[in-house]
Structures are given as structure tokens and as C-alpha cells.
Amino acid sequence: MSSITSDLTTRTAKSPRERLARWFFFACAAISIVVTIGIVVVLVLGALKFFRSTGVALGMAPGDTVSLSSYLLEGKWTPGSEPQQFGLLAPLSATVMLMLGSAIIALPLGLAAAIYLSEYASDRMRSFLKPALEILAGVPTVVYGFFALVYITPLLDQLVPLGVGTFNMVSACIVVGIMIIPMVTSISEDAMNAVPDSLRQAGYGLGATKFDVSTTVVVPSAISGIASSYILALSRAIGETMAVAIAAGSQSTVMNPLNPVAYFSPNSPITAQMIQLATGDISAQGAAYHAMFALGLTLFVVTLAMNVVSELISSRYREVYR
Amino acid sequence: MTDGHSEAETEPNATTDSATMTDDSEDELKTHSAGFESPPTGETIIEAEDVNVWYDDDRALEDISMAVPEHNVTAIIGPSGCGKSTFLRCINRMNDLIDDARVDGTLKLAGKNVYDEDVDPVALRRRVGMVFQKPNPFPKSIYDNVTYGLEMQGIDGDYDAIVEDALREAALWDEVSDRLHESGLELSGGQQQRLCIARAIAPDPEVLLMDEPASALDPVATSQIEDLIAELAEEYTVVIVTHNMQQAARISDKTAVFLTGGKLVEFDDTQKIFENPEHQRVEDYITGKFG
Ligand SMILES: Nc1ncnc2c1ncn2[C@@H]1O[C@H](COP(=O)(O)OP(=O)(O)OP(=O)(O)O)[C@@H](O)[C@H]1O
Ligand SMILES: [Mg+2]
Questions:
Q1: Which of A20, A218, A202 shows the shortest CA–CA distance to A117?
Q2: CB–CB of B125 and A216 under 8 A?
Q3: Distance in angstroms (rounded) separating the CA atoms of residues B130 and B127
């Protein structure tokens, strides 16, 4: 009896090995959080030095700072030439163009592919297509940029009556659109797979065709997952750098994203401008240097907001069935 | 329901009947001759002849032949796994949706073999509605659930009126009339199942297949559904699978007893099956000795 008692009261949870393991795992989790926080702090600090109202207080010369209002409201971005101007609207307009343009390509195609995979494809077809899609997602983005420059742009140049330049937003949008299709497809397909089969059966039982069931039962029931796939893919699109920098050039001009003609010109979004600043010959104390941080923070805020929205959508609608 | 028609073998099914004789045990033979009497009310609307179903290489149904009379409730009972749901899915070709299912034999709806080349399963399902074991309303409003079949089938008309009629017939109207535009998922299980019944009858099918429609419900909801089925039989032909003997006895006019191996052992008037079955095995099953 007493040996049972002593067995029952042995504390395995307090043994040195268990404690060590606990601390080790905690440290690993903590490191990633600390690093992330550190990056954000660096971004914010750099950006604070960029803006006049905070930068001067941090010891910057007023000439090396930019007022928040001119950053947010002006449309000329010329960090490398006199007079230096830092109007966010120019790179931001290119980012919005990239988002819209790649959305037009990726959202319908990605959703259609997801419907095919989830509703139409046989098991054999699916086991072949899903890995293919993952490979597509694994291609380095610089290869996509190269592909745009060498194939898509020359092709467009022949198709478009007035021709397109060597660098243009269309081919950047097309190639980024293609790049994010796998993301849209795989997240949407997961959402569609989660739709209970009983709902499909209900649809078929009421005399719906396969197309009807896909579009009126499966897609609406999976809409929250589809919406988050869209948002996540688009936040990936606006964060894309290499492919865009290669395909769309380095010029920065404020453009109307709703004007289709604008897409035939070169333009460079926030990410591409950051590359230029990072690789250019700039002083570590000047406004151009800190502009990198301001742009980085801007992009971070935008993508963070999109991820939060996507999270909200999926948690708000997740419990729709069952 | 009387027993006085036992000799009235005037139906053309007499031929299939004898066809079955050749390859089946004597047991089943009697069964079929009992089952193929002309029904007490209504004409035969569904007629299965030697229906076999395989899932891959597993035979789930073996030479099922039975004739379901119009405007009646026909119950299918039998132990779990004996192929009741499989048979029900043969009638509206829902088995087509299962990749490895294969159906063989003829199954006539109003005289037309639904497995003929020229039959469109989608069109078939518009005539043969189905209610499933677990309530499965769409994540749409109550109203949109009921109109779904109408929209899919391109039926025009006064949707408001059709919705009200269907919900009244399903004994749900009074509970939901003031919240038609709320989600069907917000209803209780029993209400959801009645919504599914309303949804199935809204497009006005000829036949209503019900696969254990009350198995997920409490006794009150169950008895509501049972009352409902009795009323539905005035307008529709109802084929219902149930695990509940009392339920079969209460609500059905005819009962088919399937036993393990996917065989139809006895098919007759419900009263006869429950009071004086031909087969010992059926009696054992009904009295709970096995199954
Ligand atoms: N989709 C399927 N794929 C493979 N085999 C199946 C499938 N559906 C049913 N079966 C098999 O067919 C046989 C009959 O199944 P069925 O579902 O028709 O039985 P049931 O009488 O409805 O049983 P229950 O009362 O448990 O619902 C079972 O052996 C089952 O394993
Ligand atoms: Mg079943």
C-alpha cells in the first residue's frame, strides 16, 4: 500500500528534465517574439527620425527630415536627385496598382482552380495537381521577375497596339498574380473541403447540378475562408519585391490605379523603392536613409491591417456551420 | 388495409417475380409473391427489379425487387449496414455521386427505368425529393432554404406563397413565420429537420425519400415528424428508412425488411409484417432477438 502512495506522490512535472525542457521551449518561443518586436522597434525608430516633428528631437538636422503631411500628401518621390522629395503617393499608387492588377488575375483564377480541385477533380487528378501547385508556390520570386521581363513583356509588346516599354506594371501585375494563385487556391480549397458533404448532398437532392452546387452551396458556405485567402494573397502581393522591381522598373510616378492605360507604364511600388534606397549610394544620416524605414513601416502597417481583417473575417464567420 | 387481395396477381411484375425465383432461395420467393400483390391504394410508382449495388468489390444489395405503391408510406427496416440507405439512394441516383459505387438492375419510376442512358439524374432528383438522416439546412436564411430547390429547378411562381405552403405542410410555419430571413442554422434540431422537409416538398416532387429523418431528434420532435409523414402521404409517395420498429409500425402502409447481406427478406403490408411475418428471421428481428 505504502509503495503505491509513494508512487502516486512522485512529482514528474517538477523533475529537472521536465523543467529544462519547459525552459528550452519557452526560450525558443520567446526568441521569435523578441526578434519580431525588435524589428518593429527598429522600423519605428528609423521612421521617427525621418519625420520632422519627431526627428529633430532625436537629433536630426531639420534639412534631413520630412514633414508628415508632405510624406502622406505629396506625389513626387525623388530621393536620389535634387530637389529631394518624399511624396508617398507615388510609390503607394504603384502598390495599389499592383494589388488591383494582381487581384484581377489571381482572385478569379485562384478561386476557379480551387473549385476544380475541391469539386470536380478526381482523386488522381488532385494528387497530381496539388503538389504541382505547391511547386509553383516554391519558385523563387526572382525567377518570376525574370520570366516577366523576358517572356511576358515581349508578348504584351506584340499584343498591345501601341506596344509597352521594357518595364511596365502590366507584366508585373500578371506575374505577381500568377505567383499568388497557389495561395488563393490552397487556402480556398481547404475552406471548401471543410464544407460538410451533407450540404452538397442536400443540393444534389434538390435537383441542383454540379455547377449549381459548387457556386450556390460550396462557395457561399466557404466564403470566409475564400475571403481570407484573398486578403492574405493580396498582402503577399503588395509585399512582393524582386519580381516587381525587375518587371516594372525603378521610375516612381503618382498614377491613378483605376486608369487601365496607366498600367502600361513603368512604376515602382513601396517595396521596389525600398530596394533602390537600400542598394543606392546614400548617406546613413540623410533623409533618404530614414525614408527606407518610413516606407517599411508604412508597408508593415498596411499588411498588418490586412492580416487583422482576414483574421476577423475568419473568426467572425468560422462558426457558421456546426 | 385488408388482406383480401392476396390472390390478385394482375400486375405485369409477375414476370420479374418468376425471374427472381430461379436464382433465389425459396425463402425470398414467397416474400416476393407476397410483395407483388397489387397495392391496396394507388398504382405502383417505384418498381425495383433485381437491383444490385457494389461498392468496389463489396456487394451491398443483392437482387432487390420490390414495388412501391403511390401515395403510401413504405418503410424500410433492417439492421445497420444491411443496405437500406444504399437502396434509397438508388431511387434518386444519389449513388452516382459515390465514386466506387456501381448499380445494376432496373429501377422504374412511373414505368421508366431511371438507369436508362437517356435519364438525367438531375432531372430525376427534381421528381424525387430527399430528406437526410441528419438535418442539413444550408447556411442561408429559412426562406432561401425553402426556395433553393425552386431556383435550381427554374420553377417560377409566387415564392412567398410557396414558402408559406411548404412550411405549413412541414408544420413549421407558426414557429418561423416572423423570422423567415434568419439563418436556418439558428433553428433547433427538430425545426431544422422540418425545414429540410419543407425544402424537399417545396418544388413539389412525386416521391419523398427519407433516410431515418427522426433519428437525431427527441421524442417530441419525432412525433411531430411522424404526424407530418402521415399527412404527406396524401400528396406524395413516401419511402422512409427507419431503425425504429414502432415508428415503422405506426406510420407505414407497407414495410420492407432488409437483412444483413443486402437482401430483401420480406415485403408486405405493415400489419402483416408486424403481426404475422412469413419468415422466422423477420420475426426475430422485429421482436428484437437479433439485429
Ligand atoms: N460510400 C460507401 N463506400 C463504400 N461502402 C459503403 C458506402 N456506403 C455504404 N457502404 C457499405 O454498404 C453497406 C450498406 O450500407 P448502408 O449505408 O446502405 O447501410 P444501412 O442499412 O443504411 O445502415 P445504417 O442503418 O447503419 O444506416 C455497408 O456494408 C456499408 O459499409
Ligand atoms: Mg443508413
A1: A218
A2: no
A3: 10
Q: Which residue(s) pair with B61 in the sheet?
A: B53
- Provide the grid cell at B162: 410557396
**Does residue A203 sit at the B interface (CB-CB below 8 Å)?**
yes
Taking alpha carbons only, the member of B112, B117, B138, B146 closest to residue B127 is B112
CA–CA dist A59, B53 (Å, integer): 84
The minimum-distance atom of ligand 1 relative to the CA of B83 is 18
Quick: pLDDT tens for A156-214.
999 988 888 889 999 999 999 999 999 999 999 999 999 999 999 999 999 999 999 99
pLDDT at B23: 38
Every domain of chain B and the residues it spans:
38-127+205-286
Q: Which set of grid coordinates corresponds to residue A145?
A: 521577375
A209 touches chain B (CB under 8 A): yes
What ipTM was assigned to the predicted interfaces of this complex?
Answer: 0.82
B44 CB within 6 A, ligand 1: no
Q: Are A50 and A293 in contact (CB under 8 A)?
A: yes
* Pair B259, B78: CB distance under 8 Å: yes
Please state the atom number of ligand 1 nearest to the C-alpha of residue B241.
22
Ligand 1 contacts CB of residue B98 (under 6 A): yes
CATH 1.10.3720.10 fits A88-317, yes or no: yes
A contacts of B92 (beta carbons < 8 Å):
205
The domain segmentation of chain A, as residue ranges, is: 2-78, 88-317
Residue B77 region, left (φ>0) first, then alpha (ψ -120 to 50), else beta? beta
Task: Give the burial string for A116-151 (b: 16+ CB within 10 Å, else e).
Answer: bbbbebeeeeeeebbeebeeeeeeebeebbbbbbee
What element of type H or E holds B54? strand B44-55
Q: What local confidence, expressed as pLDDT, does residue B19 receive?
A: 37
User: CA dihedral in degrees (A252, A257, A262, A265; nearest 10)?
Assistant: 30
Question: What Rg value do the Cα atoms of chain A yield, rounded?
Answer: 25
Longest Cα pair distance anywhere in chain A, in angstroms?
Answer: 94
| A264 neighbors A168 (Cβ within 8 angstroms) | yes
| CA angle at B22 for the pair B17 and B27, rounded to the nearest 5° | 75
Inform me whether the C-beta atom of residue B186 falls under 8 Å from chain A C-beta atoms: no
By the 8 A CB rule, do B126 and A207 touch?
Answer: yes
Residue recorded with cell 391504394: B41
Helix (H) or strand (E) holding A72: helix A68-73
The rounded average pLDDT for each run of 10 residues, N- to C-terminus, in chain B (291 residues) is 40 38 37 39 86 94 94 94 94 92 94 93 94 93 96 94 94 93 92 94 94 86 87 91 91 93 92 90 83 49
Distance between CA A285 and CA A278 in Å, rounded?
13
Shortest CA gap B8–chain A (Å): 36
Name residues of chain A where pLDDT drops below 70: 1-2, 317-322
Q: Is pTM, for the whole model, over 0.95? A: no
CB of B97 closer than 6 angstroms to any ligand 1 atom: no
CATH class of B38-127+205-286: alpha beta
Return the CA Rg of chain B.
19
Q: Would you tell me how many other CB atoms lie within 10 Å of the CB of residue A303? A: 17
